[in-house]
Amino acid sequence: MAEFEKKNVLDDKSYQFALKIVLLCKDLTIQKEYILSRQLLKSGTSIGANVAEANGAISNADFSAKISIAYKESLETKYWLRLLKDSEYLPEKKFAELFENADELSKIMFSILKSTRITPKSEN
pLDDT tens for residues 56-68? Predict the structure, then answer.
C-alpha cells in the first residue's frame, strides 16, 4: 500500500510541478528566451508524463524503467533551472521554489528506485 501512496503523491506533485514549468516557460517566451525555456519545458513536463506511464506499467521492470527516466528528467530540469538563474532569466526566489520542488521529486523517485532495487549511481 505504501508504494501505491507514493505513486499518487508523486503523480500529484509531478503534475503540479509540470504546470509551474509551463507557466514559467510562457513568461520566458515573453522575455524572448526561447532556447533554454524549450529545454526546460521538455524535461520539466516529461517528469510527470513518465510518472503517469509508470502508474500504468505492465510489470515491475516497466515501472522501474519509467521512474528511472522520470528521475533523470528531474536531474536535467535542475540543470536548466540553474542555467536560467545564472544567466539572469530566472529570479533567485522563483529559482529556489522550483529547484526545491524538482529536488523533492528527485528524492521521492530515488527512494522508489531504491525500493525496487534499481539504484542510480548517486542521489543528487
Answer: 999 999 999 999 9
Sign of the CA dihedral with 38 first, then 41, 43, and 46 last: negative
Taking the CB of residue 18, how many other CB atoms lie within 10 A of it? 19
Contacts of residue 71, Cβ cutoff 8 Å, sequence gap at least 6: 106, 109, 110, 113, 120
Cell triple for residue 20?
A: 509551474
- Taking domain 2-114, whether its CATH number is 1.20.1440.60 is answered by yes
Each residue's pLDDT tens digit, 53-108: 999 999 999 999 999 999 999 999 999 999 999 999 999 999 999 999 999 999 99
